Amino acid sequence: MTTLDTTPAADPTELGIDTDALAALVERAQADINAGIVPSCQIALARDGRVAASVTLGAAAPESRYVIFSSTKPVIASAMWILIGEGAIDVGKRVAEYIPEFGTNGKEVITVEQVMLHTSGFPHAPFLAAQWDDRAARLGRFGAWRCNWEPGTRFEYHPTSAHWVLAELIERASGRDFREYVRAEVLTPLGLTRLQIGVAPADQGDINELVLTGEPTPTEVLQELLGIDAWPVTEVTPEALISFNQPTVRGVGVPGGGGISTAAELALFYQGLLHNPAGIWKGEVLDDAKTVVRNNKKDWLRTPANRTLGLVLAGDDGRSNMRGMGRTVSPQSFGHNGAGGQIAWADPTTGLSFAYLTNGLDQDQIRQSRRTTALASRAAVCVAAG
């Protein structure tokens, strides 16, 4: 295999897809459309470097695109892997060695690895959207940020702050804008043109508008299921998510969550990680990113993070569903989901990759989590036995 194939296979069975299992997957996705929980969605399966199936449901055009939120993070990480392989970035070094402006207020000790693992201690670092596309303002924020806890001592998901640091590291190491670098060095060699980080306003006509749906999970349900009264407070609010309807926000290409894609191209990105068809990454660096857990600290639900340098591994502890990959993937599966119910992963055992994208931001997070488990579990068994 020398390149990915963006054209869906005429017959999914050519790529070993069980059409009955595929139908069950589509039926489950359609159920939320019928119930009015989400207005539209896309499902894609890929295998052997090709799109095996691509389905759009609800009020959306077949070739339309979606905001993929934190499913963007592995795309940024994949650019870091190139620079790591070239020796331009050493994850064991302190960030301040590359970005002196960052080395203030106790952040002098933070390593690149800690930033990539969400153990760096600044998950709540403020950065106003109006400043996102201003590099001078970005560096000013780096200098002002303080740690919420001692770097390296715990795991707390950094929704956007860590990846602004990674974007700056890419720019320092490559001498190029991080968006251009990702496009030229990762996406273009893979043949992916619809997966983008930073979309000019004139090119946003095919992006589905985000819509808030449902109501927040009732307190009594949270108490019964999780023993809490409310979800932890983070920057990932309904207002923040809906702001990605704004052309200027889409144009920035927020490195921690602003990617735009079809489900088909997101699934193909993971085929790229499975097969490295264009030889983009050094084998040992890519293998490390796909297999070596460097952060197994527990999250607020007491689930071990199972994080590599940019990906989440399903693991063999029976908690793969807590990591967004359902209950039926192999332990070696890797991926990274996004806010609002976006799903993206690959299973090296079957060679299957899966993406589910929606513009319906269901505020009932328990229901959203159950949908993710149901869809991912059905997707993983779509490879025909034998």
Short description:
It is globular, with a radius of gyration of 20 Å. It is 34% helix and 12% strand.
SSE blueprint and pairings:
Elements: H1 19-34, E1 40-47, E2 50-58, E3 66-69, H2 73-85, H3 95-98, H4 112-117, H5 135-144, H6 161-174, H7 178-190, E4 196-197, E5 211-213, H8 219-226, H9 238-242, H10 247-252, E6 259-261, H11 263-275, H12 283-291, E7 312-313, E8 334-335, E9 343-347, E10 352-358, E11 360-362, H13 365-380
Parallel strand pairs: 5-11
Antiparallel strand pairs: 1-2, 1-10, 3-6, 4-6, 7-8, 8-9, 9-10
Question: Could you characterize the architecture of this molecule?
Answer:
The protein has helices at 19-34, 73-85, 95-98, 112-117, 135-144, 161-174, 178-190, 219-226, 238-242, 247-252, 263-275, 283-291, 365-380, and strands at 40-47, 50-58, 66-69, 196-197, 211-213, 259-261, 312-313, 334-335, 343-347, 352-358, 360-362. The mean pLDDT is 95. The longest helix has 16 residues, at 19-34. A 6-stranded antiparallel beta sheet has the order 2-1-10-9-8-7, sandwiched between helices. The two termini are 22 Å apart. It contains 13 helices and 11 strands. It has 386 residues and is α+β, with helices and mostly antiparallel strands.
The proportion of strand residues reads 5-15%
Number of helix segments? Answer: 13
**What's the rounded overall pLDDT mean?**
95
Extended strand count: 11
* Low-confidence runs of at least 5 consecutive residues: none
> Secondary-structure element order, as H and E?
HEEEHHHHHHEEHHHEHHEEEEEH
Approximately how much helix is present in the residues? 25-40%
Strand order within the widest beta sheet: 2-1-10-9-8-7
Computed structural class: alpha+beta
